[in-house]
Amino acid sequence: MKALTNINASSILDAVTAAQQARNNGQTVFFSGGGTDLLQQIKDGTVDADVIINLRNIADSRQIVRNATSTNIGGLITLDELSKSNQVSNVLTEAAASIATPQIRNVATLAGNITQRPWCWYYRNGFNCYKAGGNKCFSVTGENQQHAIFGGGPSFIVHPSDTAPALVALNASFVVTGPAGERELSAADFFVLPKQNPQRENSLVEGELLSSINIPEAPPNTISGYHKVMDRESWTHAEVSVAAVLTMDGSEIRSAAIALGGVATIPWKLPPVEAFLLGKQLNPSVAREAGELAVADAQPLAKNGHKVTMTSAAVEYALLSLASA
Ligand SMILES: Cc1cc2nc3c(=O)[nH]c(=O)nc-3n(C[C@H](O)[C@H](O)[C@H](O)COP(=O)(O)OP(=O)(O)OC[C@H]3O[C@@H](n4cnc5c(N)ncnc54)[C@H](O)[C@@H]3O)c2cc1C
Ligand code: SF4
Fold it and tell me: Residue 59 gets which letter from DSSP?
């Protein structure tokens, strides 16, 4: 491993300026939150960095600030802090609590979780695929048990973040800071399909970092939850996950937002399911129909057909869990 320069940023502006200076010197720069993904990639040789800008000392980007219309969450909040907060919805605390291990949640940040790179075994093991700058996807004809059934092509990664589908279901927007200042993006503009850019998972450009997340205040009688299915009890990403946010009028659904994790190249919203649920009673037959509808457009690869059945069952289960909440 080659020598690296570590710069401890004291503010978001400081971080952006330091990154710009390093880039002007011809150096390759990466921002680091908890470093749980980045440092492993540097060690494995899948990321080649000259300079790391360490964001962890930026205390004022670890806070949750609520006002009458929205909640702003600093990107540097750790997953552990987020999972224990009583200022955000269940869907987000449950998603954060489901991630990896207590040790990783103690250091990993929300922004780092959202911007972590794919965990496809080809990419992580040094294959020169689209994500590594090449022009081939090895999973299409290779091992694709864990790959996407929605939004695939030319890469078939699954978006790895558990917090991302929860944030998408909460209609969050993403505050990005860079040399040109600050901009706020909807999820639809922040997350990028491989057909838009096969190398990246989001629309951050060089020198930009994710500084915070805004979540609009939910209407009264909104309930939410996160259901995650894994291939073992803990320490791993989702086979499929469902972030569900429902606003109720008694037992009738007034509005619904459902987003999937673990099965698509980006956090995957389900507009047809959301439309179907409007005005319905939250009961077992509605939940089952919603589960069937959820996979109507699924496009499994040769070895991941199990994800279709799992997704349908997971959506049904997530809705039934909210019915009994
Ligand atoms: C055993 C294991 C199990 C795991 N299980 C899960 C799981 O179940 N669910 C899940 O969601 N994740 C899982 N992960 C991934 C883990 O959650 C991520 O590594 C972690 O969330 C990344 O956060 P971080 O702050 O450490 O990011 P870092 O490692 O610091 O950064 C990750 C990436 O994001 C970039 N980055 C960091 N901060 C910013 C920023 N503010 N703006 C722009 N770019 C930034 C970095 O340059 C890097 O490319 C697992 C990881 C391991 C090792
Ligand atoms: S799925 Fe994406 S990361 Fe995996 S081999 Fe294909 S292009 Fe590479």
Answer: G
Q: Which of 44, 128, 137 to probe ligand 2 with, by most ligand atoms within 8 A of CB?
A: 137
Q: What angle do CA 157, 159, 160 make, to 5 degrees?
A: 110
Identify the three-state secondary structure at position 319: helix
What residue ranges define each of the domains in the chain, with the CATH number in brackets? Answer: 222-323 (3.30.390.50)
Round to whole Å and give the CA distance between 214 and 80.
19
Cβ of residue 30 lying under 6 Å from some atom of ligand 1: yes
Mutate to test the pocket of ligand 1, among 28, 43, 104 (most ligand atoms within 8 A of CB): 104
Cis before 300? omega within 30: no
pTM for the full predicted model: 0.98
List the helix and strand counts (H, then E) for the chain: 12, 12
Dist CA 216 CA 238 (whole Å): 26
Chain segment 116-167, per-residue pLDDT in tens: 999 999 999 999 999 999 999 999 999 999 999 999 999 999 999 999 999 9
pLDDT score, position 325: 75
* Residue list, ligand 2 pocket, CB within 6 Å: 118, 120, 122-123, 129-131, 137-139, 147, 155-157
% of the chain with per-residue pLDDT over 90? 96
Pseudo-torsion of CA 303, 309, 310, 316, nearest 10°? Answer: 160
Coil, helix or strand at residue 190: helix
- Quick check: CB of 230 below 6 Å from ligand 1? no
The pLDDT of residue 2 is above 90? no
Provide the token pair at 112: 């780092």
User: What does the pLDDT look like over 264-283, one tens digit per residue?
Assistant: 999 999 999 999 999 999 99
Q: Which of 31, 124, 146 to mutate to test the pocket of ligand 1 (most atoms within 8 A of CB)?
A: 31
Give the residue, by CA position, lying nearest to ligand 1 atom 43: 209
